[in-house]
Amino acid sequence: MFSMQNMIKEAYRYASYSLGEGAPADYIPELAKADTKRLAVSITDLAGRTHSVGDSQERFTMQSISKVVLLATALRFAGFDGVFARVGVEPTGDPFNSIIRLETDSSNRPSNPMINAGAIAVTTCIPGATPGERFGHVLEYARALLDNPELDYDKEVYRSESETGDRNRALAYMMRASKVIDGAVPEHLEVYFKACSLSVNCEEISFLGAVLANNGISPRGGKMLIEPFHVKVIRSLMSTCGLYDYSGEFALRVGIPAKSGVGGGIMGAVPSRMGIGTYCPALDPKGNSLCGLRAMEYLSQALNLSLF
Amino acid sequence: MFSMQNMIKEAYRYASYSLGEGAPADYIPELAKADTKRLAVSITDLAGRTHSVGDSQERFTMQSISKVVLLATALRFAGFDGVFARVGVEPTGDPFNSIIRLETDSSNRPSNPMINAGAIAVTTCIPGATPGERFGHVLEYARALLDNPELDYDKEVYRSESETGDRNRALAYMMRASKVIDGAVPEHLEVYFKACSLSVNCEEISFLGAVLANNGISPRGGKMLIEPFHVKVIRSLMSTCGLYDYSGEFALRVGIPAKSGVGGGIMGAVPSRMGIGTYCPALDPKGNSLCGLRAMEYLSQALNLSLF
Amino acid sequence: MFSMQNMIKEAYRYASYSLGEGAPADYIPELAKADTKRLAVSITDLAGRTHSVGDSQERFTMQSISKVVLLATALRFAGFDGVFARVGVEPTGDPFNSIIRLETDSSNRPSNPMINAGAIAVTTCIPGATPGERFGHVLEYARALLDNPELDYDKEVYRSESETGDRNRALAYMMRASKVIDGAVPEHLEVYFKACSLSVNCEEISFLGAVLANNGISPRGGKMLIEPFHVKVIRSLMSTCGLYDYSGEFALRVGIPAKSGVGGGIMGAVPSRMGIGTYCPALDPKGNSLCGLRAMEYLSQALNLSLF
Amino acid sequence: MFSMQNMIKEAYRYASYSLGEGAPADYIPELAKADTKRLAVSITDLAGRTHSVGDSQERFTMQSISKVVLLATALRFAGFDGVFARVGVEPTGDPFNSIIRLETDSSNRPSNPMINAGAIAVTTCIPGATPGERFGHVLEYARALLDNPELDYDKEVYRSESETGDRNRALAYMMRASKVIDGAVPEHLEVYFKACSLSVNCEEISFLGAVLANNGISPRGGKMLIEPFHVKVIRSLMSTCGLYDYSGEFALRVGIPAKSGVGGGIMGAVPSRMGIGTYCPALDPKGNSLCGLRAMEYLSQALNLSLF
Description:
Beta-lactamase; alpha+beta; three-stranded antiparallel beta sheet; Glutaminase (chains A, B, C, D); homotetramer; 308 residues; 2 domains
């Protein structure tokens, strides 16, 4: 008999065949410790109900999924024009941390907000007298968007991010050198690294997906959390750039606006249908959760979720 | 009162404000002669009815819109695996005729079938003893997909394409040098240039859009022209790569799977809704029809067509 | 009648025809203030005599000419193998501050010690507990190599360098991210920026050229300041990489191992013949002193100095 | 006792320690057949006497050494300005057949005449009604420059070059697309491939080196074969770009204007001293003859030949 719960169970089962493949992110020592046998699949429907199978309470860090939260926060404070004066909207086909285009593109703007350079540029649009105050805005918003008032960042991972963040420092200084951004680079990176370190679980990211699926309106309580135009912007960027240099193949195989993070999470937002969260920290060479991709593929096929 | 015809009229009016801006493609002498005051908007619904405003009978060459026809033809003959052994599916953010990634990407495969290198690689998958026979497959299929049994290529434009096609020759020889393709380069390019030179009108490309919107089934007669899996492949690639290095912004502003050509046409396919054709030969610096983009934006907003 | 003094006078006259062309470096505010009417030409022969015409006592900062001093210092402390584990020896054809190759080259090492990234990597080879101690080694050595025990760095320029040094910070963090260098980036850059800010005059740089011309032996006093093998290394790198992306043309037109700086100086070392210094702060678009190039061309022709 | 013959014998002995390392060029099937145990060292002094050790009569194809002959021929017919309107003079640090810079450099000119793209551009400057007539100019000049009136090209190698020359075709079409060159690409490549296939021996290339060392005057007979200004141009380009992306290290370790070819030859020209030829078809990964490099290093040290 069809039920959402059964569907998720099947997606979990299908994904679990890939357990044992891939490896956790190794460039941040804290992430390398993750248990690659953990797997979870969650769906939050537009009535606000969350269904899960597997380790859906296991906490992990958002990593690049936080790029969506940073973008939503920046759009809220600086508006569309403010944000996109500093970052473009084009997919690149480059790895997430590439520096080449900052030099070769005539505008010097990073290509889009879903790669590291772009997310750092986005972060500089979030106002505040101190990095603490600025991250406060992100945290407060994240607590609403993920429906967890206790949400916080993981101090150990944050320290590890910061210690190994030289490439992000390079990206930030390149952008300041070409006047795409201004202000104190270490402060911007404090906010950015803390956002990457936000500790979440699979159910919470499925809720974020559901907010985006529901045109920005919380499926629990009905409050408008993101304005509809910004939702369209975010969903289109997730569709074209959300999975690094796998975005094109994900569009073809899954066809759902989504964002992955090297912490092992993938968050999907199916417009007017549902939010999806998956978690498994074993990554493929492009930095996407291997079992998460499998689960997404299953759900897209089984529930006919592809936009294309 | 709402009617499809009124909507198109409004889209036409909105687009016509941009008449006079932009310029026709100048790198192919024949194209530079186009009358930049010509403008047309057509919609074909899934019942096969076509509504038009403006110069919808004016003939122009498909140019890059033919990449969709070439891809459909190649998928039909060589299947998904056959085609995508020679070309990737990732957007690049590069101009349509860039050669850099053929050298820097480890696979040496062109990034996707919507840029020149990729479409040439796709062309090599179309079988036949002679270029004439091979182009015959393309032409026959194009006649069905655009519902015009008289469809043919424009000899003047073909000659002009061929004379000025050195960059495409360079792309082809680079790919043969790295064994991505094999066979006689001049023969592949004959097929490719003839496909680019297919002479169509705005109504016909809206019909092609409608076939893709209707999951491959002809809205006139009900014959399955493209198998559904191939339709999904084509629509996802149009969504992430269809407008060159403007694809990301088009997704954000319009959100319709579409393909533009430097001949001045844009073809859109709104899944389960309609096919759209626009025509005006004045291009923006990225090679997309300026008034066509305006018309697409209007229709997307007015009819709520964005997938995102 | 031939005399060295007359030759220099003619070189000065020939160069002075280009006074008024070019512009001072503008990316460092302090440098933009330079008086572009200042011009000097100096030659130090291998008996230690210095001949000058023009503003040869005018002080300016070494900028990239200090790359030679940094390399000599690093070779002295870390030896050939120590230094060239962190930097290559190939010319690049790229501008002096390009970051692309740090990403695309398989080794991630900067291409050579005559571009910014390479000189920063070289700087990390200079030992010391503090940046002060480390720069002390550079300063002490520079005083000997330029034969001025009072030599020091310009505090205003140093502050200006440091404030506008974001691109160099980006280069340094990129190299630390790929483990080409280690240690504290701000400390390395303090040493590097202070070296760039070393305040010299035209006669002094001609003396440095004479030391290099004389196989490392001071033409005043006869002390071996640089060991002969290191001199060969430095002179060959000056020949292939000393004038940024003008190095090939300089080899063809002048043919002298030389190093230019955006402060307006050019230092040349003609093996077994003489050292040459020129100074004029108006630069061509590639960052080389315009009148300096003219003077070098004249001297190369008149005295038959080209190695090629 | 010192004698030139003894020196060469020692150089041969030193080089022979590397026999067995490296591999012949494999991208041209004919070259892959070469016997990697063949080794020869020849010196031609400025009195026209040639001294040799080893397989100095063994014939091999010039390959990239012909770039020097092509450049000399083009300079003779089109002059400095004619040639360098189509090609630059800067080293690149890229492999010999790279296409990237043809796209990224603002001028679209190839970087220098010592890489494939540059040599093809140079070839287009050689006049004639037919490729046969044009290659005739090259052949006639090569016979004089290498002092062998019987010199001809190897038909087997030429056919092999032509069959596998797709990357060179790509380079040529790229340059014609950006209007750096004009004319029929297949005709230019016929001349270029035939020049690459010129069959020579080690003694003959040492004679070519001696002509260049002797400022263009034949050391046998005293005829001026290349005008002195052109000799300077050629020697400086050999110095900065003659050994592909090993040119910088060769300057440092050997310091002689030289040109290598993947046929296994290296030709050196020590100004006012001698010409050197080496031959061994086993190449290092950068395409230079491994034993040839060893022999050059030995001679440079033993005879103090480095310019730097």
